[in-house]
Amino acid sequence: MLFSSLHTHNTFCDGKNTIEEMIEEAIKLGFSSIGISSHAYTGYSFDECGIKKDSIENYFKAVEDAKERYKDKIDVFLGMEEESRIEGEKRPILDSRLDYAIGSVHLFRTSRGFFSVDNTVEEWREAKEAYGGDTLLMIEEYLKELTSFSQEIPFDIVGHFDLYTKFNEKEKLFDEGNKDYKALAIEYLDKIIETGKIFEINTGAISRGYKTRPYPAPFLIERLKEKKAPIIITSDAHSTSALNTAYKETREMLISIGITKQATLTKKGWTYTPL
């Protein structure tokens, strides 16, 4: 397996370490490459995670400089984690300088305004209240948004498909085994699979202590296998200590169910490599 993570964060957004520190740690871990993927600028006044508008060019320059500085040690790729809507209701426009992009949804859109999907349990519950207490409706609206985003914008990687489960393992906010929920999730997963995008197997919630398994849920990973959808293991690391969290266990889990290769970004573009 060629170890890498294309989902990482740094001090240009809400990460704890600089771009250089993330790269240096990746080299120590024996990574063949690393993707630098700050949360994109959104224009929302409440957004404390995204890169600031006046820092975007500095970010691009910092990553390009790092590419050159570390070119003999590791491949560095310029990425961005794009939010489905920016500055109100606009879709983001992908910058042509990016080597790749991740597409994610971090907000529940309700009649009462925006609520974060993954900030706090309390905010998750407030969003549910805004949907009249209907959890399935809330999740369906999230999945509709992620699906339409995937269909309309040519990003490469689908970010944490079922992010709304972040608190569920500890808080039991809804029943992930419910047949109606599982049918709903598979319905929208299948629609996104049709776009040909890569699905990340994201270990970020493990490193932050919220979950004991990666996104998405096992039944969804099984569906990805059945549909032969491309996958990639990512860490969603917000610090150097999380760059390869649960990679060994995740790789073993994927191989055990019959997934033996992952999408891999190289200087020549996307390819597949053995797990």
Quick structural gist:
This protein is α/β, with parallel strands linked by helices.
Give the key terms:
globular; two-stranded antiparallel ribbon; alpha/beta
Overall description:
The chain is α/β, with parallel strands linked by helices. The protein has one domain (19-104, 145-274): TIM Barrel (Alpha-Beta Barrel). The protein contains 9 helices and 10 strands. The strands form 3 sheets. Strands 1-2-3-6-7-8 form a 6-stranded parallel β-sheet. A two-stranded antiparallel ribbon has the order 4-5. Strand 9 and strand 10 (269-274) form a beta hairpin. Helix 4 packs parallel to helix 6 (179-193) and helix 6 packs across helix 8. The chain is globular, with a radius of gyration of 18 Å. The mean pLDDT is 97.
Task: Give me the secondary-structure topology.
Blueprint: H1 19-28, E1 33-39, H2 56-69, E2 75-83, E3 102-104, E4 107-110, E5 113-116, H3 121-130, H4 135-152, E6 157-158, H5 168-171, H6 179-193, E7 198-202, H7 204-207, H8 218-226, E8 231-234, H9 247-256, E9 261-266, E10 269-274
Helix pairs in contact: 4-6, 6-8
- Whole-Å distance between the termini? 5 Å
Give Rg in angstroms: 18 Å
> How many domain modules?
1
SSE sequence, one letter per element: HEHEEEEHHEHHEHHEHEE
Principal-axis shape: globular
